[in-house]
C-alpha cells in the first residue's frame, strides 16, 4: 500500500476518533447564515453507485454512533482523495452540530431565540464596522460590561411553523419606534426567514435596555447612537414604502394575468392539437 494512502487513512481515522472531543462552535445566525448541514456534490464515480436510501421515519437511537462506525469501515476499506476530503467535512459537521442533530430535526424554541440573539450582536457590530466606523470602539463595547451596554430585558417569540433540517435562515432586525435623545430602552422587531420555504419561520420582539455599567443604572442613548438609529429609522420607513409599492405591483400584475387567461369570460383551456 502506498505510504501516501496509509497517511490519508491514518489522518481520517484520527479525525473520527477525535469526533467527540472537538469543542463545539456556536452557530452565528446573520444575513443568510447557514442553518443546518452543508450540502456536498457527488463526483462522477459516486453517481454510478446505487442511490442513497431515504431517511427512515424512525431513526435508530444509536444512529450517530452507527454512522461513525460506517464511516470508519469505509476508511479502513480505502478511499479516494476526494472521498477522504468529503469524510473530513462530514466529521467536522458532526463534531460541530451533534447536539442539535441528536435533539431531532425540528428546531426547538430556544434555538430560535439563540438565532435572534446572535443576529442582534451582528446587527450592532454592523454599526461599528460599516455604518458609523468613527465610533467603532464605542459600538463594539455595547456587548461588554465596560461602559454603556445593551442588555436584553425580555424576548417574545411567535413561532410560525416548525423548521426542519436542512434549511438556511436569514434574520432581520429593525427598530420598532424612532429613537430620541431621552431613549434609554428600545424595541427591536426580529424576522427569521426560512430560505427553503421562503416564508417567516418566527417573529421575535426584543426589549433592549441601555445600561451604564459604571453607575449601575439605565442611561439614555449617546448622541452618536441616536443619530445612527434615526438614520436607520428613516431608511426603514423608506424601504417599507418602496416594498409595499412593489408588492402591490406584483399582486396587480398577477391579477392581470389571471383576467387575461383562465379568469376571462371566454376562457378555454388550450390543450394543443393532434397535428401539432
Give the SSE layout:
Blueprint lengths: L2 H15 L15 E2 L28 H15 L3 H23 L5 H23 L4 H5 L7 E12 L8 E8 L9 E10 L4 E14 L4 E2 L4 H37 L17
Antiparallel strand pairs: 1-3, 2-5, 3-4, 4-5, 5-6
Helix pairs in contact: 1-2, 1-3, 2-3
Characterization of the model:
This protein has 276 residues and is of the alpha+beta class. Among the domains are: 69 residues; 120 residues, Thiol Ester Dehydrase, Chain A, CATH 3.10.129.10. It is 43% helix and 17% strand. Strands 1, 2, 3, 4, 5 and 6 form a six-stranded antiparallel beta sheet that branches. It is flat. It starts with a helix and ends in a 17-residue tail after the last helix. The relative contact order is 0.11. InterPro entries: 4-hydroxybenzoyl-CoA_TE (IPR050563), HotDog_dom_sf (IPR029069). GO terms for molecular function: fatty acyl-CoA hydrolase activity.
CATH class of the domain at 109-228, please?
Answer: Alpha Beta
Number of discrete helical segments:
6
Distance between the termini: 63 Å
Mean pLDDT, to the nearest integer, reads 73
Q: What shape does the CA trace take?
A: flat
CATH homologous superfamily label of the domain at 109-228:
Hotdog Thioesterase
- The helix-strand sequence is HEHHHHEEEEEH
Structural category: alpha+beta
Radius of gyration: 26 Å
Strand residue content: 15-25%
Low-confidence stretches: 15-54, 102-106
Largest sheet report: 6 strands, antiparallel
Tell me the number of strands.
Answer: 6
CATH architecture annotation name of the domain at 109-228 = Roll
Helix content: 40-55%
CATH topology annotation of the domain at 109-228: Thiol Ester Dehydrase, Chain A
Amino acid at each position: 500500500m502506498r505510504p501516501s494512502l496509509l497517511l490519508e487513512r491514518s489522518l481520517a481515522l484520527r479525525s473520527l476518533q477525535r469526533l467527540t472531543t472537538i469543542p463545539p462552535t456556536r452557530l452565528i445566525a446573520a444575513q443568510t447564515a447557514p442553518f443546518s448541514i452543508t450540502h456536498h456534490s457527488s463526483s462522477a464515480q459516486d453517481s454510478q453507485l446505487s442511490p442513497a436510501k431515504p431517511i427512515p421515519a424512525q431513526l435508530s437511537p444509536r444512529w450517530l454512533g452507527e454512522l461513525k462506525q460506517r464511516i470508519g469501515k469505509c476508511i479502513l476499506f480505502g478511499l479516494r482523495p476526494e472521498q477522504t476530503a468529503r469524510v473530513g467535512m462530514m466529521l467536522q459537521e458532526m463534531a460541530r452540530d451533534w447536539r442539535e442533530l441528536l435533539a431531532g430535526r425540528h428546531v426547538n424554541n430556544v434555538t430560535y431565540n439563540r438565532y435572534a440573539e446572535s443576529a442582534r450582536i451582528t446587527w450592532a457590530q454592523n454599526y461599528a464596522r460599516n455604518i458609523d466606523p468613527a465610533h467603532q470602539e464605542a459600538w463594539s463595547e455595547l456587548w461588554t460590561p465596560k461602559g454603556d451596554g445593551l442588555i436584553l430585558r425580555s424576548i417574545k417569540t411567535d413561532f410560525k411553523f416548525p423548521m426542519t433540517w436542512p434549511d438556511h435562515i436569514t434574520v432581520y432586525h429593525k427598530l420598532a419606534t424612532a429613537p430620541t435623545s431621552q431613549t434609554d430602552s428600545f424595541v427591536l422587531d426580529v424576522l427569521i426567514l426560512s430560505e427553503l420555504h421562503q416564508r417567516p419561520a418566527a417573529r421575535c420582539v426584543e426589549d433592549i435596555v441601555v445600561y451604564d455599567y459604571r453607575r449601575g443604572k439605565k442611561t439614555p442613548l449617546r448622541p452618536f447612537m441616536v443619530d445612527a438609529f434615526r438614520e436607520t429609522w428613516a431608511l426603514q420607513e423608506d424601504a417599507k414604502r418602496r416594498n409595499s409599492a412593489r408588492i402591490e405591483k406584483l399582486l396587480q400584475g398577477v391579477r392581470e394575468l389571471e383576467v387575461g387567461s383562465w379568469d376571462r369570460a371566454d376562457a378555454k383551456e388550450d390543450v394543443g392539437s393532434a397535428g401539432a
